Predict the structure.
Amino acid sequence: MNIVENFDLFAPRLINSKELLSSGHRACSGCAEVLAVRLMCKALGENTVIASATGCMEIVSSMFPTTAWRVPWIHVAFENTAAVASGVEAGLKALRRKGRIDDRYIKVVGMAGDGGTMDIGFQALSGAMERGHDMIFVCFDNEAYMNTGIQRSSGTPMGASTTTAPAGKVSMGQKTWKKNMPEILVAHEIPYVATVCPSYPLDFIRKIEKAKSIKGPSYIHCFSMCPTGWRSPSHSAISMGRLAVETGVFPLYEVEHGHYRLSPDMPKKLKPIKDYFKPQGRFRHLTPDEIDMIQQRVTVEFVKLKEKAKFLKTGNE
Ligand SMILES: Cc1ncc(C[n+]2csc(CCOP(=O)(O)OP(=O)(O)O)c2C)c(N)n1
Ligand SMILES: [Mg+2]
């Protein structure tokens, strides 16, 4: 039985009803990212300070003179989210030591889009993780620089059409493979790395709660479906997230102290990626050969991941 399909039945008892990101923000209709941020806030609770890069979530939530945030929230530059979050963490520690603030635990969170995490904020993120700060960094990956007009990033998947990598007579759109950011963070040997998707809210909340409970750096990579940039209907965010997981395009897993575990939501047998590509205008131009080429890569990557999670026996059988 799939728990998400029975969401109405018991989710209200399991998910905190308090909203720390209020309604009235200006996200596009059908934005999965704003749902993801709401879930993240529910899991984090009030004792949280968030440093947020520029990007959709900053633009839609903090139109002067209003704010949708009910937790302390700092808008920082594109490059330095993780640096600011690590400074806040160190500052809180010092204030607590000097008795200048209550002795209560406050979790510091850095958040940014794929551009702000995988490209422009990467150096600051790598440094903060390596220094071992007690913080969570969450990448909200909508697979392009969306709020400035759908430009490609290193998170844009192969074959997607964007305004700076447009599909046409001479190009299939994005010509590079998506950067494997969770793996790069695993290579930092931090205590916890996980992938999440708001189409799986209970898995999402559990992983954020786990990251919160860890004293040290954690990295969460969130699949954030964007109807506007992906050229798909605004009612499709949840089903698209599920298809991304079911096709293996975005596997749900966690890595705790180097130990990989696939989420129980991962199907034993993957659906073909064409099911996921079909409802999205950004992939509409792809030929069957191009889809095959991408399918092969997705299959290989998923097998590699399963091996790491010891779902497959080691060896060549
Ligand atoms: C150094 C710098 N370069 C460019 C910009 C302009 N800019 C603001 S938001 C943004 C796109 C952000 O993309 P991403 O991080 O993926 O977040 P999204 O908008 O997709 O949520 C850009 C290019 C900036 N603010 N600072
Ligand atoms: Mg983006």
Remarks:
- The chain has one domain: 4-308.
- Strands lie at 48-52, 73-75, 107-113, 135-141, 192-196, 218-223, 253-256, 259-262.
